[in-house]
Amino acid sequence: MPKAFLPFKAYSFAEDATVPRFDDSRPLVVYDGVCILCSGFIKFVLKHDHAQKFHFTAAQSPLGQALFQHYRLDPVNFETNLLVYNGQAYARLDAFTTIMSLLPLPVRLLSLARFIPSPLDRWFYESIAKNRYRIFGRSESCMVPTPDIRKRFID
């Protein structure tokens, strides 16, 4: 299991009155809803998540904002996706590899990226994150889920 990325010794978000209550029985992916790369990643996960394990919320949503603030991540410049799973928070490459590990083969093989050495994985992830709008673009609004997947998104 990958290491959790927490910028401080975090306490459970359930104890934080500023975090809206949500069903935390399934992994929750918090993503930048206006980032075309991030929304594309969510579409990729949706396509491969046949068991419908994941819930999703945009970082711009009240829940996304509260979780980013709880985990002391920048609530304005979303330079990481956040995965909340089994009481742990994962960010950057740890979030990506943990998400991939929960998907079926052959996509699960992408979780092997967890073996990229730390200095290199951080540089790679941060390079893409800082340049994602310039490279991939930005939409004017968050992705609107289709009715068939709407139940998997938390506002």
Features:
Glutaredoxin, about 10% strand, alpha+beta, about 160 residues, 4 strands, four-stranded mixed beta sheet, 4 helices, about 35% helix
Structure, explained:
With 155 residues, the chain is of the alpha+beta class. The chain has a single domain, classed as 3-Layer(aba) Sandwich (Glutaredoxin). 33% of the residues lie in helices and 10% in strands. It has 4 helices and 4 strands. It has helices at 36-48, 62-70, 92-101, 118-136; strands at 28-31, 55-58, 82-85, 88-91. The protein has a 4-stranded mixed beta sheet, with helices on both faces. Helix 1 links the parallel strand 1 and strand 2. It is globular and about 35 Å long. It starts with 27 loop residues before the first strand and ends in a 19-residue tail after the last helix.
Outline:
With 155 residues, the chain is α+β, with helices and mostly antiparallel strands.
What is the level-2 CATH architecture name?
A: 3-Layer(aba) Sandwich
Q: Which regions have little confidence, pLDDT < 50, spanning 5+ residues?
A: none
Reading off the top of the CATH hierarchy, the class is best stated as Alpha Beta
Distance between the termini: 29 Å
Structural class: alpha+beta
Percent of sequence in beta strands: 5-15%
Mean pLDDT: 89
